[in-house]
Structure formats: C-alpha cells, structure tokens
Queue: 4 jobs
Job 1
Amino acid sequence: MPDIAPGAHDLVVRAHAEDVCGGSYASYSLPITVFDCLEAADCDDDGDPCTDAACEANVCVHNLKDCGDGFCKPDTGECVECLEEDNCGEENPFCVDNVCVECIEDANCDDDDLCTNDACVDNACVNEPVDCGDGVCDPENGECVECLVNDDCPRWKICTEENECIWYWETGGGPAPIIPGGGDDDDDDEAVECVEDADCEDGDLCTINICADDACVTLPVECAEDEICDPDTGECFTDPDSGQPIPEPGDDDDDDADDDDDDDDAPAGKCGLLGFGQMGMMLTGLTLMRVSRRRRNR
C-alpha cells in the first residue's frame, strides 16, 4: 500500500461483478483520516541525540531533551552543567570538562589581600593567611612585622610607628593600663592603671612611683636645698649653678647637726628621698586608701 500523507482523505472503492447478463461496475467513496502516529514508537528518529521523539495529537514531534538548568551535549546527548564559559555564573566562571569551576590558574584567585597566599588547587581557590610566626602581616604591603597595634604586643609593651614592640616606659610616656592578675585581658575584669607599686614604674630614677587606689601617683625625689637629682643615678648632688661648693667625702657640717633631731623638717638624705617624717605620713595615707578600697570591694 502506498504511503499516504497524514490527514483527511476519501477512499474510493470500485467493485466489478459479472452475471449471465454481462458485467457491471460499482464505485463507493469512503472518507478516511490518516494519522502520523498513535504512539512515540511510530515516530522515526531524527538523528539528533539532543531531541526526544513524541507523538502529540497523532503527529510526530521531536522535542529538545530536558536538561533542567544544564545543557545537552550534542555529540552524546548527555546533560551537562556547561558547554562553554558563557554557560557559567560569576561565582564559578570557567567551564572545564563541562563543569563550571572557580579557577584554572593562581591568578584567578587573587582576593586583593596582600596578607594571603592565593593558589588554584583542583580548580578551587585557596587563600591562606601569610605565616608570620609570632608577628603579624601588614595589610599595606604584605610584609611581616612585630605588631600593628598594642594588642599585638606582650604585656607591658606597646607598638611603635615602626611596628616594633617596646617597653612602655621607653617611650617616655606614663604607665600603660593593665588588668589585675596578669596574663591576657579578660572581658570580665575592669581595666585599672595599677595593682602594685611596681606597675607604676616610669623608668625615671628621679621620681617615686606608688600605686594608690588602683591609680599611679608619681612624686619627684626631694633633694636638699641647692641640690638636684641626677637622672642617671637618682642621687642628689649640689647644683653647680647655686654657687655652693660640692662637699668632699667625709666632710661634716656642724651647723646642720641640730637639725637632725627634727625628722619631719630635715631635708632628704644622700640618696635624695623625702624626709622620713614626710615619707612616712605619705605612705601611711596611701596604704589606708588601698586598704579602704579593698574592704569596700569585698
């Protein structure tokens, strides 16, 4: 039977019959409809691996294979993530073996941070911090330095503009704030200036440093009249500008002998300390302040 195009047709049937009177013919016309298919199996393959044959309304159609968010690989018909870089997004912009990846070389992993080492490992970026050992990395140039801020330094040291940790008294400034008990700062502790006299040491031999009520009190060494404190030794010596002779070792001043009986009015001794009476009253007051503070805190 010849191929008939799908659609509506008229089927003409002719019949021939013979009898004793001779032969006769009869013709009959029947309307028919020819369908392209009844099911997908009736449809021929179009040779494209990225299409699927289907029978829709008795007509064969070849629809593109549904790969969801992916793409059909034209040589195999396999659904893959990408065929080219234009198929990939900003996060993974490179197409490698039909897969979108983050990088194909180290340069793709530059995070604009000088303090990281950037590398492409198995098509994924790895940004590891620069190892500075006990130091820190300077984000301005990527170099390792000892410190950037005071918190980078050990206790009792501060960070200079040259990114070096130095003892706070080497700057000539006052005592650095500390936390009671030593060690690392604790958020639960209240920062105070000192907890003992040693915390107030300013490196100046011509001052007396005392911790009173969690605060440093710095007093100058008191020398006798016409004497000044030597910053190299902390001792008092005669001021050359006073016009008084510098006493020789072993010399005694008989005129001052009577003054020795009154400790409260006597000038400081050879070491340049406050008079004993004055010093005792001051230390007693400071001690009472500390004891009072500690009792209140209990």
Note: Residues 177-189, 246-298 have pLDDT under 50 and may be disordered.
Job 2
Amino acid sequence: MVPAAFPAAMLRGMYADYFGLKQPPFSIAPDPHYLFMSERHREALAHLLYGLGSGGGFVLLTGEIGAGKTTVCRCFLEQIPKRCNVAYIFNPKLTVVELMRSVCDEFLVPYPEREPGAATVTDYLDPLNAFLLRTHGVGQNNVLIIDEAQSLSPDVLEQLRLMTNLETHERKLLQIILIGQPELRDMVAQPGLQQLAQRVIARFHLEALTERETAQYIRHRLAVAGMTGPIPFLGDTLQRIHRLCRGVPRRINLLCDRALLGAYASGKVVVDRSIVDKAAREVFDASEVSASMPATSRRKALRLALAGGLAIGLVVGAAAFAGAPWLMERLRGRAAMAPAPVPSATPAASVPRVNLASSPAVAASAAASGSSDAASAAPTAISPASAPPAVPALAPASQAH
C-alpha cells in the first residue's frame, strides 16, 4: 500500500503537502496543541485541577490504553500556576528507595550521598520533608505525578501513602496524582490498601470516544494541522474508523495516518472505505479487523464459507465413491436378485433420480474400501425402477474382493 522505497517520515511530510496541511495531523505523540477536549476530557482535566487546590491526598485518573490520559496530564501541566512545584515520575517500576531518590531529584532536593545499596528511605524522606515545609511557608504547593501507576508495587504504594502524612495543622504538604490503566482502580480497592483508598479525594475514568466524537476528533486534528476545506474522509469511512478503533484516540491516530499515506500513494484525494480497510490490516491485528465487521458482513462471509465447505464435501464424497467399482457391481447384483414390484391399481407418483454419491452409508463404505482407483472411476446414478426397496448392510471391503 505504501511504497517501501521511501521512509515513512518522508512520506508523511509529502502527504501533508498533498492534502494542504502544515504538518502531519495524526502523530501519536501527546501534543497538548492537538488535545481534543471532549466532555470526558474536560471532566478529567477538571478533576486534576480540583485535586491541585484541595489540600493534599490522592487523585486517580484511569483509562484504557491510548485513551488520552497522558495528553490530558500534559494539558494540566500547562495550566499549573508558577507557585506550584511539580515532580513527574514516568517510570514507576522502582523500589521504595529508588522512588524516594527519584522524587528528590525531580524536586531538586539535595540528599546525602551513600554507597550503592547503603541508602535508606530516611536518607531521602528527611530532606524531602524539610523541602515541603520550607516551600509551604512561602506559599508554594507541591505535586507528585506518577504515570503508568498500575505498575507500582504494593510496597511503593504504601510508601506513597506514608508520604501524604507529611502535613501541617492546616493541610497536607504533598499532592499525589496517580495516572494509569483500569487495573489501577482494582489495585487501590484491595483490602491491604484500604488506608490509601480512603485518602483518594477525586477519581475519574476516561472513557473512549463515541462515534460522533470520533468524527469531531478527526476534524479537529485536521483543522489544527491547517486544513480549511472539506476533510478527505467520507461519512461512512468515519463510521468504519470508529468501529475499527473503538473510539480510542491513539488507535484513531494510527489508522488515519496510515490511511492518508495510502491515499497519497494511490494518488487519491479522498480516503474511501477500501483504503481504510487496507490501512487497518497494516496497523492492527487481522482478528481485530475481522471482529469489527458488521454482523451482516460476518453472516455473508459465514454463508460463503459454509457453501464452499459443502461443495468440497460433495466432491470428496463423489471421489471416494468413484474409487469403489466393486460396490457398484454388488449393488447391481442385489438389484437383479430382488423380486419384481407388484403393479399397483393406481399409477405411482414419479420419483426423482437418486445419486448414490449423496448417500451417507455408501460414502462411509466407500471410504473404508481404500481403493486406489479413485481417479479413474465415476459415480453412477441408478434408476428407481431397478433399485431395491432397501439395501441390506454391506460386508466390509475385505470380504467383497
């Protein structure tokens, strides 16, 4: 879909010019300038700002992968007043001592140097407490933000709770914001962390975008990138994008970026559904693309698969039956020995011709024969007039020869 001779970054710059954009609009970097403030994002930002002025404790912001949590946090950081000191931890896979050292480094708090492995929590907690008291005395607030907080160990979470004990008679000295995936809520709800849960003053779960919001999100990013005319995505294409991406902004960015690349590489100015489907197969797992198909399309695909399977079964059955000529001779012999039918006073209704290849019993017996003449023999249809009323059970293939 995309020419392999050109790097993706070069193609993005080329498709931006091709569609009249100042820059590629669907980067997955958390750029606050592209933040689409849906109702949910506005509520998430409001919860963070509320926690900033609430006087300490924990604020929880959770959401699915790619829902926009980090982007909301970056927007929050741009609105923090100058009198607020911020420590941002984005690698939470730390021990308790490593966490305390990282917090001091972020707040620029000096601490005594120790031999590797000799430092204790107190070596960092005491100077941090002095720093918090000093800044509180001059009217400054202190905020600790931890991203990907679902990766924190129980010991680190307990240490964070103990850090909120640093307080004056009026307020706590440290505000802690935990940002993470939905399992963070389950972690905080564990019985062993009940004391931490009681100190959560605000929590918000960032849901995915609706179909209407997905279309608004795409238009918003294109407008920020400089598009002034109609967008290159058709209406049904926007619906398809929402279904494929499930309303997750990061997935929308991945798919729309690749779709615009595909349209540029194909020389098209409109991104239709076929381009979106090709792009989805390139950036998503094939099972995800299949699962996003409408129910009618899945039923149609199932009918085609069943029809194909039935046709294959008939061919295999006919081929197996054709490989048993001895069976045909035996059936003819039994038909010759059968008594002639007694004429009826009323004319018999016409009976359709029967193809023995469709009989389950015959097919099973033919499969057991193991004959090697399957390629040369052909199935034979027997007229109702010569067929017996019922065919007795046949002997195994080894007895027939």
Note: Residues 307-328, 341-401 have pLDDT under 50 and may be disordered.
Job 3
Amino acid sequence: MSVSCFDLFKIGIGPSSSHTVGPMRAAARFIERWIVDNGDLERTARVRAEVFGSLAMTGRGHGTDKALMMGLEGHWPDRINPDIIPATLERIRGEKRIRLQGRHEIVFDEKHDLIMNKRQKLPFHTNGMRFTAYDAAGDVIATRDYYSVGGGFVVNEDEAAEDRIVADTSVVPYPFASGDELLLRARESGLSIAQMIYANEQVWRSTDEIDAGLDQLWDAMKACVERGIRSPGTLPGGRRVTRRAPALHADLQSRPDAGLEDPRTMVDWVNLFALAVNEENAAGGRVVMGRPPARPASSRRCCTTTTASFQAPTSRACGPSC
C-alpha cells in the first residue's frame, strides 16, 4: 500500500479529526452538493442534523456540535479562520438562526435541529451523521447519510455500502513497509530519506503541486504555534484549565541569553511549541493532524523534520546524510 504525505497530514480544526474535521466537512458537503448545486437553497426552510453512535456519545465534548454548525454555514476545516468561530456560534445560538453557506438564513434551534442519537447507530460505521433539508411546508428536499471514518475522511452512504475505501496500489519508485526497509532503500539508492519520499510523491503530483502543498502545511503549523502562544485564557470544558503557553513564552522571551548559559533551555522552546499546538487543538483551533493515529503535529521540531523530509533535492532539501 502506498500513502502520500498529504494523506498522512491534514489541516483541520481540533480537537479530533473524526469528531470535528469529518463532521464539518460532511455538513458543508451536504449543503453544497445536495442543496446549492441542485438549486434548492432559497426554498430550504429548515435543516436537521443528526449524529449517531460514537459521535453522539462524545460529540459535545469533542466539539462535534460546533463543527456541524460551522459546516452548515459553509465553512471547511482546512480554510476556516478559527478566530471567527466563537462569535459565529454565539450568533447562531443567540438568534436561533443559521446562514446556510453563509448566505441563506433560516430558523435553527439547536435543541431540535441538532440531535445526538446516543442509543442508535447507522449501519456502516459508528461515526454516522444524517442531514435532512425541508421546505416551508415540511416536505423533504434532500436527505443524506455520511460517515466520519477517521483522519478527517468522510464517505457517503453509497461509498460506504460499496466498500470504496480501498488501499492505494500506486507503484512508487522507493516502496517500503517498515523503517528497516526504508533505511535499506536509502543505502541501495544512495539517496536521503527526503529525496526518496519526494520521488515517491511525484507518482501522484507535480513538483510544483508538492511544494505548494508542503508550504501550505508548514504555514498552518507555524500559524498554529503563533496563535497558541498569543492566546491566553482557559480551555473549553468544565475544568476551566488555564492555557500555559503564553506565560511560558513570556518567560522564555524575558531570558534571551539563557540558551548560552544552559543548552537545555532549547528543550523549553520545543516544549513551548508542543504546548502551544496542543492547547490550540484542545481549544478547537486550526492544526495539522497526522494519521495514524490522528493527532496534531505538535512541535516545531516535528514540523521542521516533516517539511525537510519531503522537500525537493534543492538547496532547501536535506542532503544525503539526512
């Protein structure tokens, strides 16, 4: 099986690829594909979103409800500005109205229109969702089931029924199934890991597309760290946990020469980057998630290694010794 780095790393909204990224994508996809593209946006008077199984059991704690509402408003997890989320949710809940794809406002009462079916499951996967749109007379305009299958991937009921989640069988120039095999390929080819993986990526994309995609991932990683160190306050949830990254950043900034006195200070910076990303993930900010398992890329060192390992063999790339 061949896996692209762009399948491993996804830009999305925390804290869970299956419970936030998938549901937001499914909601946006339903409105776009089954309402807007069919010319039914203006006649839609009500939308009902239901979640089932695991999504319903742990959904509110993982922000599934928030992700669904943002998706119905037309936002996608890899493009949304996380700074707009709190105010948008406050508007929806305060006015009990939602703007489908950001332009068609309808009544939306979260208590009746966003249902957590904790005792029910849809047939193909525990993370099931069902969206139904109605006209003013209460007649169904469209209804569709989706499944959030992990890593931010979403399939509809037809794809799930046909078992269309299949392994990629593309033939890459440097295949490997283990770390030992990867090192063996490097010794045989005389190439660095970075150069081999970059060559593998060219099976799916041009070099320009690879570089652009990597730049997008790297920009998202840096922005996540920067947002984490400038966002004080508490994390969502009943425990009211204080965010620690801003204070740690201020402390390190106040001691610019500490690294010269104690090299271990650099570890504090690595911990800061990791903490900033982890707190952003917990707060529902935009992160780069890795799969498997789905979790945020959580430090500058991780980001740098990931980026360098997939760069083209130019001055920006790792050398043969990487």
Note: Residues 277 and 298 are 5 Å apart (CA to CA).
Job 4
Amino acid sequence: MDLNALNVFITLYRAGSTQRAAKQLGRSQSFVSKVLAQLREELSDPLFIRTANGLHPTSYADKIAPKIQSSIEQINLALEPEYFDPKNLQYITVHLGEPLMVMMGKELINAIRAETDAVIELRQWRKSSNDGLIDGSIDVGIQSLRERPQQLYQKKVASGYGSLVGNKNGEFIKLIVEDLNEYVELYRTVDDKLNPTIIVDNYSVQRQLLAENYSYQFKLESDDTHKDIAVDLAVICSAARRHEAKITWLSELCQKVMLKSIANS
C-alpha cells in the first residue's frame, strides 16, 4: 500500500463520490475506482457503501480515516520544500462573500496573476463553501466571522460596519448575503421599525438602486464614524491546511487586497 492510495482514500472519504474525488485529485474516475478496489482487497473491508446520497463510509473507514489523515499531513509537512514559489501552482480556488466579489474580485485576480500562471477559480460564497474548504476543493474563503465547523480555521482580518446610504425618501433595500443574513434582520438592532420593500441578493443591483432608494453599505471600521451594524470579516481555510505554504501565501494576499479594496469603495 503506497501513500498515493491512502491519499485517494482520504479524498474519497471527504468527497463522498468517486467523481468528485477524481476531480479533486486531477485523475480519472476509473483510476479512483481501481485504487478503491485495491484498498478494499488489502484491508479486507468494503470501506464505502453506495447509497442514494453517495458513498457512505463503513465503521472501519470512520475509525482509520483520522489516523491516516494525520499521517499524511505529517509526511507532507516533512516533504514540503522550504522554498515556496507560487509560480509552481497549478490551480487556485477562492470563494468570496457578497459584496466582496464586486469590491475586490478583479483586484484579487490581478494580484494572483501577477505572481502565478495557475488557473484561478473565483466564486461567490455559498453555504456549501464550508464543506468545500473542509474537503480541500476550495483553498481559501472570505466571509463573516461566525460559528463554523471545527474543521475550519478563521482569522479575523477586518472589523467593519454598515451605515445607511442613499436616498432616504425612497424605499428601504435589504441586501441578502448567503450564509450571513438570509433569516436575520441585522438592521432591526438600529431601527426595529425598518421593513424592506425591495430585497436583492446582488451587490451591483443594490448600488444601482441607491440613487432613488436607501440601504446599508459595508465599510471598514473607523473611530470617527458611527457604526450602525458591526460585521467582522475573516479569511477562512481548512484547519488541517492552515500552515501549508500555499494557504499562507494566498491568505495574506487576499487580506491585503481586501483591505485595500474596501477602503477605496
């Protein structure tokens, strides 16, 4: 049994399907299935049971997965070169919460491209982004600092606030940010009589409507500005990967671009 086979096992364990595991590994689905068959024979256990929701690990797989994951991390750490060069990266995936995608998306892509020719996948943050960070299909995310799965590491990088902007003679607009305020009315902490009559989930549309209406807009914390609604932002990654050179480099780059972009918005 080699290290590559164990890495396939852990990827399968996290992904829950041979198709997703193959995509994350950059290999064919038939390759993953072949390795799984070999592992089943060597370990004398089916390891995963096929269900309507994907591959479900057996009790034995649940037992050995944490130990194998820990061993792989130690080996990778020992083998990781002391010198890190982003030019050697092949693929980078970042998820940003709304409205950060509009505020810093272009600048982040330019900053990454200045250091590497890797494929850049930049997507809007969804609830499923938490799972993607855990299984390794997403490198880094930026979203509000809040309670999240223990497998994730969050580093607070900015404190911000929301203040009313726009034409207060118009209608009040609520900007929905997924995994933040779908079911929470944050503005009620300031004015419990506020009721949105326009609800959007796109920052660009919200800004277009501000000439005739009003809403809350995010800005970085400032000592001389009244903070109506406090929001803390965090760079988020897998706790198991937080010390990887790639994650450290990308997290620092995201933080730098984010602070600059929001300050200029």
Note: The mean pLDDT is 85.
